[in-house]
Amino acid sequence: MHDLAIRNTLIFDGTGAPGKLGEVGITGNRISAMGREVGPSRDRVDAAGLALMPGIIDGHTHYDAQVTWDPLVDPSPSLGVTTVVIGNCGFTIAPCRPQDRDLTMRNLTHVEGMSLDALRLGIRWEFESFGDYLGMLERQGVGPNLAAFVGHSAVRTFVLREDAARRTATDGEIAQMAAIVREAMEQGAVGFATSTNEPHNGEGGIPMPSRLADDREMRALVKAMGANGRGMFMLTKGSKTSVPYLETLAAESGRPVLIAAMLHSNTNPGKVFAETAEMAAARARGHRLYAQVSPCPLTMDFTLHSPYVFESVDSWKPAMAAHGDALQAVYQDADFRARVKDDLVKFHGMRLFNSEWDKVQVVEVRDAVHREYEGRAVSELAQAAGRHPLDWLLDLALAEDLDTVFTAQLKNNDTAAVGRLVADPDTHVALSDAGAHLTFFCDAGYGLHLLGHWARDLGVISLEQAVRKLTSQPAQLFGIRGRGVLREGAFADLLLFDPKTVGRGPNVRLFDLPGNAARLRAPGFGVHGVWVNGKRLVDETGLLPDAPRAGAVLREFDA
User: Fold this and answer.
1) Which of 6, 29, 76, 236 has the fewest Cβ atoms within 10 angstroms?
2) What is the pLDDT of residue 559?
3) How far apart are CA 436 and CA 108, in angstroms?
4) How far is it, in rounded angstroms, from Cα 309 to Cα 405?
5) DSSP track, 437-464
6) Between β-strands 30-35 and 20-27, what pairing exists: parallel, antiparallel or unpaired?
7) Angle between the N-to-C axes of helices 130-140 and 171-187, in degrees from 0 to 180, rounded to the nearest 10
8) Distance (Å, rounded) from C-alpha 209 to C-alpha 91?
9) What's the rounded mean pLDDT across residues 470-493?
10) Could you give the CA distance from residue 156 to residue 162 in angstroms, rounded to a whole number?
11) How far apart are CA 138 and CA 356, in angstroms?
12) pTM for the whole thing?
């Protein structure tokens, strides 16, 4: 007798096959039967009108800090996610010496979009090595399954300490870092992650440590990762990291390379397709390079207290190093404004923000006298005032002590172009960034958006292929065993959803991080049940109040 049977459901098994009506039996943490009828069970769910698929495997999250105080990693389970991959971009908190904890947290303040106070109050520092960190997570338990990259910036900080974001490493330091990466792989890392991306900065605009690595260091650490014939090299690439260069790393290490963030830009529309074509050519030569893409527009909320939108602009650095009255003085400085305007012209199409002022809107003003600006584009408002958009935006923010909330649609705004990226059978759909950029955006519901918007509403991709993109494809990519498919003997990671209503809702701002710090959270629609290893975490009302820590810390992966 099965412990649970989910009956009368449309089953999408994750392979890309069309859905079939049937039943699924679960015993313990595994699927024990599938078919038209599976026989008696102790418990049952009648899923009439609903569809069943493997749980979503979210391959790009940043829950490394949050999971230590929130083992259920809200909101991912309620958005259909049953496995999270953490440590992307190399932004991790392990390894870390006790005396370097504050340094590690300061590295994360900008890229994680989380206050330093929240990190100080929340992180449980019951570890030093990468293996210690995984062991702590196993002892406390996790809601969804969890796989972890060993992160470049943390490794670099462990070895170079205060110099990690200041200089290149010596041969001896590179050898120490390589040893740490090899040890982490033996302890259960899914791979090695890094970033060369220009907007990735720590507190005060200091580059994330990985951005200081030279070619010697990068090659040594990727080789160390692949020394035992397994592991994924994950990179968020910057403007100076070419696909041909990354192919040489794949060739030398024999390991696959996952490249983020492959987003479409209106100001440089052919770039992402040229790079994905280069990756396809590399795969034809036997070198496994894969593009990580998003089904969501890259839209960020921000204030001028911490405007991540502009932080890849070189001339913005004085603002990143200033606070309080000093920051306002920077914004008022005419020379600062002139340099930023020049850079926006000089590097048009090459940075996160590329002067698309028509896609920057005022969301919320502090002072009622400015209420008429809400919901309107900065380009329109600046033109009416006869001002440059940058001057208009800075002056409004200064008038409100920098509390004005803006939003910017940065990339992935062209439906046809994004649809082309999403439908490509070889791209990895992910980039939720769940657990990071918490005050800027929340794309944790990207999987529901793929199922609802792109499959049901637009028909750019079939529902069965959308399911494959979210389940068996990432499982194969990361070497995750026994997950991502519905078949007898597989782990019972399941998402029960309504194909007619599935999707994600608008962001809401919560103040529930440690110290009541703020974050954005987007609700999901059409989710009726989520099971991890056969245990239910979510029903049609959302995350269960007593949701179990049913996940496994994954340490063994296929080559």
Assistant:
1) 29
2) 86
3) 9
4) 12
5) STTT---TTHHHHIIIIIIIIS-SS-HH
6) antiparallel
7) 30
8) 10
9) 98
10) 10
11) 46
12) 0.93
Structure tokens at 527: 């989710």
Give the pLDDT mean for 421-431: 97
Determine the Cα–Cα distance for residues 149 and 192; give it in Å rounded to an integer.
5
Do residues 246 and 289 make contact, with C-beta atoms less than 8 angstroms apart? yes
The answer to whether the beta carbons of residues 358 and 377 sit under 8 Å apart is: yes
Q: State the Cα–Cα distance between residues 497 and 283, nearest whole angstrom.
A: 35
**Is the separation of the CB atoms in 446 and 434 below 8 Å?**
no
One-letter amino acid at 145 equals N
Where along the chain do the CATH 3.20.20.140 domains lie? 55-297+412-418+429-462
Residue 50 phi, psi dihedral angles, 5° rounding: -110, 160
Band of pLDDT at residue 446, cut at 50, 70 and 90: very high
Q: How far apart, in whole angstroms, are the C-alpha atoms of residue 491 and residue 481? A: 9
Beta strands at 191-195 and 232-236: parallel, antiparallel or unpaired: parallel
C-beta of residue 281 within 8 angstroms of C-beta of residue 249: no
Q: How far apart are CA 88 and CA 320, in angstroms?
A: 23
Q: Which residues, listed in sequence order, are joined to residue 192 by a DSSP beta bridge? A: 150, 233
With CA atoms as reference, report the closest residue to 195 among 244, 156, 140, 138.
Answer: 156
State how far the Cα of 406 lies from the Cα of 336, in Å rounded to an integer: 21
Beta bridge partners of 20: 11
User: Is pLDDT of 268 > 80?
Assistant: yes
The CATH class given to the 55-297+412-418+429-462 domain equals alpha beta
**pLDDT tens sequence across 147-204:** 999 999 999 999 999 999 999 999 999 999 999 999 999 999 999 999 999 888 888 7
Judge residue 218's burial from the number of C-beta atoms within 10 Å of its C-beta, 0-12 exposed, 13-18 middle, 19 or more buried.
buried
Report pLDDT digits (tens) over 515-543: 998 898 999 999 999 999 999 999 999 99
DSSP H helical ranges for 149-270? 152-160, 171-187, 215-225, 243-253
DSSP 8-state assignment for residue 526: S
**HSE, side-chain direction, 13 A CA sphere, residue 401:** 3
Residue type, 396: L
